Amino acid sequence: MEKMYKVKFPLDQSIETALERRQAAEAARKARIFNTRLRVMGLDLDALTKQTQEKKHRQEMERERDKAFDTLRLQHDEVLLQRDRQERKVREALHAGLTQFWNIQQRVEDSSDADLKCGLKGAVTITVPEAELGPSSMQIFQGEDVGEAQRKREQMKQTERDLLTQRVQQERRCLEDKHKEMLAEEELLQQDLSWRQQHNAEEESRKAARVALDRYNRALATERAERLKEAHRREEGENLAEKWHTLTSAMMTEGWDAAVNQLQDAKASMRDSWKGMSPEQISAIYRAREEQCIERQRCRDMEKNRDAAWNSWLQKASGEAQQEERRWSELRRAKQIQEEQFNLQLAKEQQAHQRYLDKELYTNKATPEYFCQFNTTSR
Predict the structure, then answer these.
(1) Domain ranges of the chain
(2) Cα separations in angstroms, 11 against 7, 14, 15, 16, 23
(3) How far apart are CA 253 and CA 315, in angstroms?
(4) What is d(CA 304, CA 9) in angstroms, rounded to the nearest whole number?
(5) Residue from 289, 285, 265 nearest 277 by CA
(6) How many CB atoms sit inside 10 A of residue 259's CB?
(7) Which of 51, 74, 71 shows the shortest CA–CA distance to 63?
(8) CA–CA distance, 271 with 266 (Å, rounded to integer)
(9) pLDDT one-digit tens code per residue, 282-333
(10) Could you give the CA distance from residue 205 to residue 202 in angstroms, rounded to a whole number?
């Protein structure tokens, strides 16, 4: 029979990892739920902190970028200045080298015609005895270039004439340039003068236009004032004529004849054209006034009788209302007494029930450990 040995298999790390992850999530959830400030105010401090850090990081990056741009700009300026200095040095070195090359390699004394240009100063020095030299070594023969002095004088004169011509041409060019500058200045002065004249002419035209406009406005104002005066005079004349017509018209005479129309109908008389009345109309008015007084007195008597009846009815109704009010007051008082008795009975019952709750029902009070078992998890 084979023996059975216990083999300890390695635990699954994923289970422990999942358990730790759930415990960490539970702890984070508790921290969020049981934090009164976050739960009541709804602030996400992590998000706010992250936003603040991102903003500071962005500002820092912008400052670094600006500094980098400034540094790069300074470097570019320094490189350009260094390049300019190098180019200047290269040009100076090239010029110095060229000058040195001219001085060393292209001297006048080393040219093939140095003996002619420098007066035999640059000629090759003969170190060999003259008796050993052949005809080919000779440079100047007897009788050669007889008119050299005359030719040199002519060349010098020609050079002087060329220099004089060049100086005259240069002076002429200077004079022409000065003349051109003078003409340009005169043209500018002429343009300035013409512009000033044009400006003065425009200013004069504007002044003349303003003066004409002022005159026209004054003429319009004068004409308007005359029209107003004329209208005022015409209105005063019309008012005076109307007053005179009113004073001299038949309306002010209070005549009966002026009140009768063309059909001689007294009932259809023009009552707006006169103030007087006929005796028949006056007597009719008196009769109508007496009738109106009688009718008014009768209305007053009827109104007094009606007021007396109304006052008696009001007194009667007031007495009945007072009696009804007293009856309702007694009923309310009785109802209030009944409610007070009912409230007393109800209070006694509630007190008895509270004593029962305190002394018989709720005798086992909860301990602090009982309340500590709540809100221990986030679920």
Answers:
(1) 15-84, 158-221, 253-360
(2) 12, 9, 8, 9, 19
(3) 62
(4) 124
(5) 285
(6) 22
(7) 71
(8) 10
(9) 788 889 999 999 999 999 999 999 999 999 998 888 888 899 999 999 999 9
(10) 5
DSSP 34: S
Rounded Cα distance, 66 and 75, in Å: 14
C-alpha span between 343 and 351 (Å, rounded): 12
Distances (CA, A) of 354 to 312, 342, 351, 366: 62, 18, 5, 18
User: What is the tens place of the pLDDT at every residue in 132-186?
Assistant: 666 666 666 666 666 777 888 888 888 888 888 888 888 888 888 888 888 888 8
Q: Quick: pLDDT tens for 93-134.
A: 888 888 888 888 777 776 666 555 555 444 445 555 666 666
Q: Which positions ≥6 away from 378 have C-beta within 8 Å?
A: 26, 29, 30, 33, 34
DSSP states of 296-345 as a string? HHHHHHHHHHHHHHHHHHHHHHHHHHHHHHHHHHHHHHHHHHHHHHHHHH
Burial class, 220, CB count within 10 angstroms (exposed 0-12 / middle 13-18 / buried 19+): exposed
pLDDT digits (tens, 9 = 90+) for 216-254: 888 889 999 999 999 999 999 999 988 888 777 666 655
Tokens of 168: 């005259």
End-to-end CA distance of the chain: 54
- Look at residues 266, 228, 272 and name the one whose alpha carbon lies nearest to residue 249: 272
- CA dist., res. 180 & res. 172, Å (int): 12
